[in-house]
Every structure is written in C-alpha cells, then in structure tokens.
Amino acid sequence: MASSPRRPRAQKDPATAVSELVATCGPMVHAVVRRMVRNPADAEDVVQDAFLQAYRHWGAFRGDSSPCTWLHSIAVRAAMRRGRRESRRRQATAEYAKALPFAQPRLAQADFPARSAEARELREEARARVDAAIQDVPDPYRGALILKEIAGMEVAEVAAVLGVKENTVKTRLHRGRLLLRAALLASQPRRAVPPAVYDRAMCMDLLRAKMESLDRGVDFPVQDDLVCERCREVFASLDVGADACRSLRGTTMPAALRKRIEAAIRAG
Questions:
Q1: Disulfide engineering: 188 pairs with which of 90, 108, 115, 263, CB 3.0-4.6 Å?
Q2: Tens digit of each residue's pLDDT (9 = 90 or more) over 169-196
Q3: Is 4 helix (H, G, I), strand (E, B) or coil?
Q4: Strand 106-108 to strand 190-192: parallel, antiparallel, or no bridges (unpaired)?
Q5: What is the CA radius of gyration of the chain?
Q6: Which long-range contacts (CB under 8 A, 24 or more apart) does 184-188 make?
Q7: Domain 14-88+250-267 indexed as CATH 1.10.3720.10
Q8: Helix/strand/coil for 7
C-alpha cells in the first residue's frame, strides 16, 4: 500500500502507537470496512473494535509487515466474519461465469473518446455505481478487490492481510473486477459489436495481460491495433471501474468515530 507508515518506535507505549495509527491509517481502514459491511453503524463498530484489538495486542505485533497492513488484517477479518453472518449464501463461481464478456453478442459501450461528454458522464456516474455495486460482489472476491483497488495495496500486502497465496489473490482480484464491471454496466445501453477477431483463447490471454497490468498499476503493454473492438470495449470498462475505485480511497474518518476510538484507548 502506497505510503504505509513504518512501525512506530518500539519505546512508544501502545496507547501512543495506536493513537498515531488512528490518524495515519484510520481513514483507509474505515473506507475498506465500510464497503465490506453493509450497515454503516456495524462498520463503525468493526473499525472501533479493530483499533482496540490493536491496542490490546500491540505487544504481539512483530513488525513483519507495516502497522497499517497488520491493522487491516485485524479489521478485514472481523468485517468478513460480520459479512458472512449478514449475507445470503451465494454461488460465486456461477456469478463469475455469467460475468465473462466474450460470449455476449451485445456489450455496454465504455470506449468513448477520453474528453467526450459520454466518457465524462460515465466516469461521474461510475463512482456512485461502484460504491453501491462493490458490496454485491460475492466473497471471496470482494475482499481482494477492496484491498487492492480501494486501499491501494500491493498484491503481496493483500495476500498478507487475507492470509492466502499471492496467486490466490490474483485469481480473486481478476474475477472480482469482472463481477464489478458487470454491475457497473448493468444499466448502460448495449450495442452489437463485431465478433472477436481472435479465438477465445487469445482473447482470454489478452484479458489476463490486461489484468496483470492493472495488478501492477502500469499501462497495458499491448498496442491498440492488436486489440479487437470487443476486447477494447471490455478493457475500457475495466479502466472505468479501476478509476472509480481509486476515487473511493479514504482520506477522512468520521469525527465522532475517531473520538470514540481515542476515548476507548484512553480508558484502556
């Protein structure tokens, strides 16, 4: 995660160390948990409890990761437990299969000229749509998607938070992006697009390359003239979703929540 603070000095007491984390990591932890737990009040309870757990168990923090990554681990696992209690059972694999775009004869248009009114409107609407839709991405894809795209963590950090292998994170992340894309474009007008220029295997290879570029935060390495119109529409919509997720990154924490956490830490 970009600009994660280093571990506070060892001589700092837990109250001082965790109070500093409230200021430095609190907004992003709140942004992440708020999108993993549907009820805002429940989300605030999870965030407060995560900081109190960090305070009570500060001595167990070994410094193998940054304090923010460690704190996210506590908060995300609590949010996932809460989410499992409140969500209906879902067939995540089946939903992903329906989200694969290459077999669909009609696609929602997302590949507008960058400065066009249509592109501007889609990107303005995308933030609100993504904020609502991301809570409907089924587990286990949702956690990886939120940590990577909203919290801005590296794949290795997401793996550390979730306690899984990096390749598992990538699989969940790639599937989560397609599910989010489907939700984002659900109400967009659809139009017929030409059949894929390449066979399905080639399109899937290009999609994997696009996903890898999003994982690393770099430009897509394949030249536009090698990508057919169908793939170009899909990749443009993935970019819109990624931009919308970045716009949701937390910069502030509710003042009342911050005061509650600080008071609870002072009370021990």
A1: 108
A2: 999 999 999 888 887 777 766 777 666 6
A3: coil
A4: antiparallel
A5: 20
A6: 184/126, 184/129, 184/130, 184/133, 184/237, 184/240, 184/241, 184/244, 185/108, 185/110, 185/237, 186/133, 188/108, 188/109, 188/110, 188/122
A7: no
A8: coil
* Of residues 259, 268, 187, 193, the one with CA closest to residue 232: 193
Predicted model pTM: 0.79
Extract the tokens encoding 36. Answer: 């993993």
The two domains 14-88+250-267 and 92-246 share their CATH topology (first three levels equal): no
**pLDDT value of position 98:** 64
Q: Torsion angle of alpha carbons 28, 17, 14, 253, nearest 10°? A: -30
CATH of domain 92-246: 1.10.10.10
Query: What distance, in Å, lies between the first and last C-alpha atoms of the chain?
Result: 30
35 has pLDDT over 70: yes
Residue 6 has what pLDDT? 45
Tokens for 247, please give them: 């716009």
251 secondary structure, DSSP code: -
Residue 112: its pLDDT value, please? Answer: 57
Of 102, 105, 113, the residue nearest 206 (C-alpha)? 102
Domain residue ranges in the chain: 14-88+250-267, 92-246
Q: What is the C-alpha to C-alpha distance for residues 125 and 136, in angstroms, rounded to an integer?
A: 17
Residue 260: CB atoms within 10 Å: 16
